[in-house]
Amino acid sequence: xxxxxxxxxxxxxxxxxxxxxxxxxxxxxxxxxxxxxxxxxxxxxxxxxxxxxxxxxxxxxxxxxxxxxxxxxxxxxxxxxxxxxxxxxxxxxxxxxxxxxxxxxxxxxxxxxxxxxxxxxxxxxxxxxxxxxxxxxxxxxxxxxxxxxxxxxxxxxxxxxxxxxxxxxxxxxxxxxxxxxxxxxxxx
Length: 188
What we know:
With 188 residues, the chain is an alpha/beta fold. It contains seven helices and six strands, in the order ββααβαααβααββ. A six-stranded parallel sheet has the order 1-6-5-2-3-4, with helices on both faces.
């Protein structure tokens, strides 16, 4: 079944836009994944490995401000571990996530190295937006969950953006296009 998005955001095609020095962007985890993790190619669709990094690089070259959240590390490390486990499964054998994480120390070391390398790039290219995950933030996310069709990570990312006055996000995640009051920069 096709996804039936109700578009509420202003959507900007990254292949037709030229960022400038006054732009302020939050970069979603999927973009960091494609930009910083070499094995992302195993799961990427055409354009994801080229269009998004090219746009972020144009934004950086123009002097735009680029941000991430600490939650991006949680999501990025999850994606990298999942991809590394899937690569392992294709070449060795099927294995459950917890078994992969706890029983294969050489694999764990490799995953940690991949995450550290990717995260180092994220930090070198952008700045952090702080978010305190307290009762106020969780209540706001839960309120948003009733009206916004986002997953848990994205609810907190949206809250982070709101708290810092950032209205532009670079993402391939179509869910963000359903959020009113933001500007979604995408090739999707």
